[in-house]
Amino acid sequence: IKSYEYRMKVKDLSNKDIKYYSQTYIIPSQIIRGLLAFRWAQTMRLAVEEINQSPELLPNYTLGYKIFDSCAYPLTGQRAALAVLNGLSEAESPMCSSSYPLLAVIGESGSAQSIVVSRLLQPFRIPMISYFSSCACLTDRRKYPTFFRVIPNDDYQVKAIAQLLVHFNWTWVGLVRGDHEYGRFAVQGLLRELQGTKVCVAYQEMIPLLYNQQRALEIISLAKVVVVFSAEGEMTPFLRDYMAQNITGIQWVASEAWVTASVFTGSEYYPYLGGTIGFGIRTGHISRLSNYLQTINPQKYPNNPLVQELWEALYGCSPSLSSASQLPLCLGQDPRVAYNAYKAVYAIAHSLHNLLHCQPGSGPFENNSCAQSNSISPWQLQHYLQEVKFTIAGEEVNFDLKGDSIPYYDVINWQRGTSQNIEFINVGLFDGTKPAGDELLIEEDRIMWAGHQSEVPVSVCSGSCPPGSRKAVRRGKPVCCFDCVPCDSDSIECTFCPENFWSSEDRTSCIPKKVEFLAYDSLGIALTVISAVGACLTIAVFAVFFHHRNTAIVRVNNSELSFFILFALTLCFLCSLVFIGEPTVWSCMLRHTAFSITFSLCISCILGKTMVVLAAFTATRPGNNIMKWLGPKQQRAIIFSCTLVQVVICAAWLIDAPPYPSRNTKYERSKIILECSVGSSLAFWCVLGYIGLQAGLCFVLAFLARKLPGNFNEAKFITFSMLIFCTVWLAFIPAYISSPGNYADAVESFAILGSSFGLLFCLFAPKCYIILLKPEKNTKQHLMGKEKKEHVIG
Description:
Distance between the termini: 146 Å
GO molecular function: G protein-coupled receptor activity
CATH architecture of the largest domain: Up-down Bundle
Keywords: Cell membrane, G-protein coupled receptor, Glycoprotein, Membrane, Receptor, Signal, Transducer, Transmembrane, Transmembrane helix
Domain G-protein coupled receptors family 3 profile: 523-787
Number of helices: 22
Largest sheet: 8 strands, mixed
Strand order of the largest sheet: 9-8-10-11-12-15-16-17
Structural class: alpha/beta
Helix content: 40-55%
Membrane topology: Multi-pass membrane protein
Pfam families: 7tm_3, ANF_receptor, NCD3G
Number of strands: 24
């Protein structure tokens, strides 16, 4: 293919004398794609002409360039780069001696060629912008410090392909790559992305650089889905051999290097390549490209068959409506790679523009200096390239610290056109700037799959095992390949039902588990009724005591403490209701804390009453003034202090590890038991232990005062009440530990109600009996055992 050379002068209009400013070189690649390289070169020429005609961008300066062809071969690219670096002879060179001969390179298209050229340019710190080299290896700034590109690197492409495979649940795929760095690094990146997913690789094969038909035919697909990282030049003979073998039904996943290759658009390719899906470079619109290409047409160059072939065979369009070709008119749409070359030229132009408009004293170089307009070094231009940011055709262009551009891909699907040829249809977008997991957007209803099918193809090594069976991995095969064997007593890797389901008796289906908690069913209603009855009885006793508050039995037994005890007992009866219903965060925290504080208040009052009774009889001894230390204020202080200790324990419990609702799925496989986990077992047993300590102390004091004189010795009733209380809670502990979920809640509710009824009846039933049925005994003399003695004396 002929090498085209273009040399342009740079005129400084402000000084009215000619100065040769710079030359920018473009090195197209791929000899088999020489016609496309010719098109990219024309697009670059268009971009340079637009910039040179622009009054806003680089005014008073004209860009110059020279074009070389590397023929898609690294050695040829190396020779071209060396020719550039050696410079032109003094007779041929129109450049001033003070001007650097080369400021930037646009190219290469192939990653292998870019690696060679970039390494040659590196010692001279000459920046290079590639429009088609996507190998992730080029992001290494230590090896390629002057490399930039306007195409996303393959780290994003392999991430997009991995997401595509996972999205369509293709777990068994083949990988085919070209024999070059692009294919090698792309496959390595894809394997890295697939780690941790359910996708397995059936095989990895390489299309030999020196094509061998026999070797190519050995790459027989065992997978329905095949991912190919290759250039279209390598794919052409490879696919033609497959077509000769009449292999159809393969769902091809194409890399950006060939997903928009117009060489495959012929109708003969559709039975074999129709439905291909892949990620292509984002399309862009170059408004003047159509008219510009028409200036390079077969009419203007009648003896150059390259132009006619370029328009029709590869462009897939005709130069004009008057052409004899049946192909559609070229509109300048969908240039893709050419659009990247267009952006690369503008990136250099904007960087030069920013460099030339540097304000002295605020520059980026030593001592805040700027570059000299008549002596610019490549490294100075590279600094501005790294910082450049501009918008072209509505798209923002800039480079990150590794020289990469913003990662965007179009999702391309190969579908049959109206003329039976293949058309490239956009069916989605990959936006690398979006959060992880949200980058891929696909319109599935617009996709046509291999074999002209509308259903997503299935590509698995082994189908899912039916219920009642398990996977048995095949020895020497990937984990995606397995046999299904029935589940039995010795099975260790059966498919487990989800947490909210359980296996049926025949182990063939998952049945939703029944959710249980202490609800308002028969048991819950019974507890509610008992709780309400207990609270009502307590309130009734309170009313009786309040009505007869001036009688002897109420006054002698410390009416204030009695009212406190009745109030606390009412709360004890009511707090059992909190244990009924579905556990929530608030109900779980309220359950144990409410019952522990109310019971602690109740026992504190009883403890105060016991101390008063014991002190009252002890105070009758001569010289004993103990009652002055147990007045009403001291009694309230005792109740407050004893209850405060429990409040502090509960507060610490709620702050450190509060109770919370939990789902018990282990006790019974067919049920999910909703229960309240205590959070901190230590705190739970602390609150119970403190209540037990109070009850034990109260029992000991009451037991010591049980034989004190009097017809109504309250110490006896306190002793009985504490005995019942302790018995109930001692029986509660083993029952609570051995009961799950709703039964544990029921046991605790019964313990609360039982102990509350025990306290109510033992402490207040005898008093209510005298008040209501034996009012003649409701006298101080009778209660103190002096009634008979006074009668005899009288």
